[in-house]
């Protein structure tokens, strides 16, 4: 079943797509208000797609059902991401990418972005996808199964923007740095930025994201 999503269509002709995955307990509506803040140049024709994660029980939250890309059974970093759940959600997001390709958008004009849990999916899926995408935006996030990355990654020439909060109490910055190191070790063109913030997105970061997207999609 295809994921439902909030879609922000471009004013001009559709030329590029950003698929942006939310964090645990949020929805596609959570990040949609960022589109007017980004104020992308109309000539780039950027469509934003904000999918809703499936609703499922989350172990660390007492089994409460909420929107989640995968279950979290432990706060320990090496056990935090349920690998099977990550792979299942990645397959669902892959369908969204295929829809964009089928509509005539080139793979290098598709950006996969994600915050927290959504970033885990983005970092997992994009390097393993059968075509090289325009880039990955991984915000306040970490990596699932880093030990399998070298064997499974198809595209190691991807551009990656990683941003993290120095005071993040949910995903420690060290977890983000570990993912960044894995990307760099495997030859990906990853850039790292951190800000004095918690588990959130700040104004300076939005300006950075805007500039990065313009460079990737011009």
Descriptive account of the structure:
It is a single chain. With 218 residues, the protein is α/β, with parallel strands linked by helices. The chain has a single domain (5-217), classed as Alpha/Beta hydrolase fold, catalytic domain (Rossmann fold), CATH 3.40.50. Helices cover 35% and strands 22% of the residues. The protein has 8 helices and 9 strands. The chain has helices spanning 28-31, 34-38, 77-80, 83-102, 117-128, 149-152, 173-185, 203-217; strands spanning 5-8, 16-21, 46-51, 55-58, 64-67, 110-115, 135-139, 159-165, 189-195. The chain has a 7-stranded mixed beta sheet with strand order 1-3-2-6-7-8-9, with helices on both faces. A hairpin with a 5-residue loop joins strand 4 and strand 5 (64-67). Helix 4 (83-102) packs across helix 5 (117-128). It is globular. The termini are far apart. The model has no long low-confidence stretch (mean pLDDT 96).
Write the layout of secondary structure elements.
Elements (H helix, E strand, L loop, with lengths): L4 E4 L7 E6 L6 H4 L2 H5 L7 E6 L3 E4 L5 E4 L9 H4 L2 H20 L7 E6 L1 H12 L6 E5 L9 H4 L6 E7 L7 H13 L3 E7 L7 H15 L1
Parallel strand pairs: 2-3, 2-6, 6-7, 7-8, 8-9
Antiparallel strand pairs: 1-3, 4-5
Helix pairs in contact: 4-5
């Amino acid at each position: 079943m295809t994921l439902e999503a909030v879609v922000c269509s471009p004013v001009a002709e559709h030329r590029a797509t950003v698929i942006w995955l939310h964090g645990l307990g949020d929805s596609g509506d959570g990040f949609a208000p960022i589109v007017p803040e980004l104020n992308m140049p109309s000539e780039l024709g950027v469509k934003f797609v904000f999918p809703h994660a499936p609703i499922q029980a989350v172990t660390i939250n007492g089994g409460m059902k909420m929107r989640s890309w995968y279950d979290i059974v432990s706060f320990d970093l090496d056990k935090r991401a349920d690998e099977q759940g990550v792979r299942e959600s990645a397959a669902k997001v892959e369908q969204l990418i295929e829809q964009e390709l089928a509509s005539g958008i080139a793979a290098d004009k598709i950006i996969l972005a994600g915050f927290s849990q959504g970033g885990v999916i983005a970092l997992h899926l994009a390097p393993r996808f059968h075509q090289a995408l325009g880039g990955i935006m991984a915000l306040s996030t970490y990596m699932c199964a880093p030990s399998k990355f070298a064997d499974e990654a198809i595209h190691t020439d991807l551009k990656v923007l990683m941003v993290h909060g120095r005071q993040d109490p949910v995903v420690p910055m060290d977890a983000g740095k570990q993912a960044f190191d894995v990307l760099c070790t495997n030859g990906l063109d990853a850039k790292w930025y951190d800000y004095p913030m918690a588990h959130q997105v700040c104004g300076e970061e939005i300006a950075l994201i805007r500039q990065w997207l313009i460079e990737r999609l011009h």
